Amino acid sequence: MILTGRALCLPSRATVQELFSVARDAGVVPDISLDPVLATFLSLDSSDAVQHQYASLRRGMSGELQAAFGLNLSRELGDGGRVTGGGVGVVALALSLLFDQVAQQVRGQGSTGGKPPVRRSPPRRIFGISSASRIGRIVHGYLRLIPGIANDLEKMAEATERHDDWLNLELIDHYERMTTRKRMSTVSMQQWLAGAAFHLHVRIHQVRLISVPRGSAESLRLSYKTAFGRLVQGYTVYLHRNTKETPAGGPGRTNTLGRTDISNSVFNGSLPSDSTDEINGTTSANSSADVSRGCETDFGINVSKRRNETTRVVVNRKCLDNATTRADVQGLLVIEPGRNVTHTVQHHPCESPALQQALVTRIINAQDLERNRRFFLYPEKFFNRLLSQKDDFELETN
After folding, report:
1. Exposed, middle or buried, 102 (CB in 10 Å: 0-12/13-18/19+)?
2. What CA–CA distance (Å, rounded) separates 139 from 202?
3. Following DSSP, what letter does each residue of 191-231 receive, concatenated?
């Protein structure tokens, strides 16, 4: 069997795995999986989750801190610490954030000898996305309101409807930016997924409050199910377009001109011209180009200026030594703007295109896309159980 040049440029599985491991260890492998906190609290397990978190926080406190924790929560919640629908969906999620913030506050107050604590600041990230993003601000603004209005069904219905409208408009615009305005990225995917999951449960809560018909939530679920599939396809194309890789050089193996190549080129009076690599739209000169620009013959003639003529010249030994030294360089893996890592993986340069394709496949397979899809694939029986959730929450009195 005669191997063609194309077959010789297929990378080994070991090379693909080694490069993927480098990216994973450096923390540059993208993750568009749904935030686990969001997935847990926006489920049928929400009541158990909020009770477990509340009990865990109290167990980690001294008796004095427990008392302060309960007192601060009572002030925030009112009505004797009872929250209507406190174990359900978005309300449970709001309580979860409040518990964490108040626990941090009372611990900080205890560590400062009872001095008034610094005012609570909003979290920088919420459910895997920036709280400063447009979607993040809407989500955080709604959750911050809920503890104080959950027991007033009229106010709760008004606030939920208002934030439902804001999220709906923002998510439509966000989807359009990604699909038609070339704003696709890992961050934009994370924001859309978190926003869509949250928005669906805001709509579900409106059904519980009898503000909208059941079909409204079902229609939104189907819409997001379709949109998610299309966005994953677009995201995969985006990664294929942006993922670039150049191999590392090393002693005894170069990806630029080696000593023999330079010697032969010089004595034939020419240098190769294809000595540049393009990474993410930018072109950088190869080390061989630096050699040709900086090396002169003993006659003082620049080799690069005489590439069309055959001239016998004597090359300075220092130039050849520099060519070998500069070959010992690191490779570069770019996944998308802002996600790149240098590496020492050596392979033939012609394998890079196939490596890039294989790495994108590994990255997509590493995502928990099936769980993301299931979030918008509720069976009818499961969906009906979500709509009928009515669990309340009440603070411990001792």
Report:
1. buried
2. 10
3. HHHHHHHHHHHHHHHHHHTTSS-HHHHHHHHHHHHHHHHHH
Structure tokens at 193: 């997924």
**pLDDT surpasses 80 at 257:** no
**How is 38-67 classified by DSSP, letter by letter?**
HHHHSSTTHHHHHHHHHHHHHHTS-HHHHH
Residue given tokens 């590496």 in the structure block? 343
Question: In angstroms, rounded to a whole number, what is the distance separating the alpha carbons of residues 55 and 98?
Answer: 14
pLDDT at 183: 93
User: C-alpha 284: how far from its chain's center?
Assistant: 28
Six-digit token string for 199 = 């928005």
Model pLDDT for residues 340-357, shown as the tens digit of each residue: 999 999 999 999 999 999
- Asked if 157 and 84 count as a contact pair (C-beta separation under 8 A), the reply is no
Residue 85 zone, left/alpha/beta (φ > 0; ψ -120 to 50; rest): left
Pairwise CA distance, residues 261 & 211, whole Å: 76
Closest CA to 65 of 38, 96, 103: 103
Q: Which two tokens stand for residue 224?
A: 């997001």
Contact at 8 Å (CB) between 28 and 186?
A: no
- Name the DSSP letter for residue 243: -
Question: What confidence category does residue 131 fall into, taking pLDDT thresholds of 50, 70 and 90?
Answer: confident
CA-based nearest residue to 351, from 59, 120, 13, 77: 13
Per the CB < 8 A criterion, the answer to whether 36 and 192 are in contact is no
Name every residue whose Cβ is closer than 8 Å to that of residue 199 and which is 6 or more positions away in sequence.
Answer: 164, 167, 168, 171, 220, 224
Q: Residue 348: CB partners within 8 Å, gap ≥ 6? A: 8, 9, 247
